[in-house]
Design brief:
Layout lengths: L12 E6 L12 E13 L2 E10 L8 E6 L16 E6 L5 E5 L15 E2 L1 E2 L13 E2 L12 E6 L19 E6 L12
Antiparallel strand pairs: 1-5, 2-3, 2-4, 4-5, 6-11, 7-10, 8-9, 10-11
């Protein structure tokens, strides 16, 4: 399906707005939450209305994950800079799966943690690469239904050594997750 302007509309990726009054950047891969307001923006001679989002924190009700930013010029960064109004693209389907790594501290997650819920830790991302620093907060995995994410499965790759000690130079484990505290989903206890 598409809207009147021909843009795809399937409910899985939609446009939102990062307000110029927001001093926190939104990087690619950041969880976002709605602020409850909308903003009108002139684009191509049309007045468009967008719901405003901001980078989320642990425990928020999430709208989705930022997967891109619509540039206004060829020199714009690939992320939404602090205090800059811009349109961000958000994967907002409550059933979407995302690839995320665990943080480099604490006890490494293992395959036995698949099915549990877990919180996210908000680390600083990189304005050089535009990529998020959010990671799985290993140490919070539990059956508790109010945790941020649900671990759906292991990421199957030769260099994904689950349970390895990162102090030995091993990479942090990577997992497929679903947003558990999504605006449009019921929170479900882990198994």
């Amino acid at each position: 399906m598409s809207d009147a302007y021909g843009a795809p509309y399937n409910g899985s990726v939609r446009a939102y707005y990062h307000a110029a009054s927001d001093a926190t950047p939104i990087l690619i891969g950041d969880l976002v939450t709605e602020t409850g307001v909308s903003e009108f923006v002139m684009q191509g001679g049309f007045k468009m209305s967008y719901s405003v989002v901001t980078r989320a924190a642990t425990g928020d009700i999430f709208r989705g994950v930022c997967i891109g930013v619509l540039p206004q010029t060829q020199n714009d960064p690939i992320y939404a800079p602090a205090s800059t109004g811009c349109v961000v693209l958000v994967a907002d389907d409550p059933n979407a799966l995302f690839l995320v790594q665990e943080q480099n501290t604490g006890t490494a997650l293992t395959a036995n943690d698949v099915g549990l819920n877990i919180n996210v830790v908000v680390n600083a991302g990189s304005t050089v690469t535009g990529m998020s620093g959010m990671a799985l907060n290993n140490g919070t995995e539990a059956v508790t239904n109010t945790l941020d994410l649900k671990i759906i499965g292991q990421y199957l790759a030769a260099d994904n050594d689950l349970g390895a000690d990162t102090s030995t130079g091993a990479l942090p484990g990577r997992f497929l997750v679903r947003i558990n505290r999504h605006r449009f989903a019921n929170q479900v206890a882990g198994i």
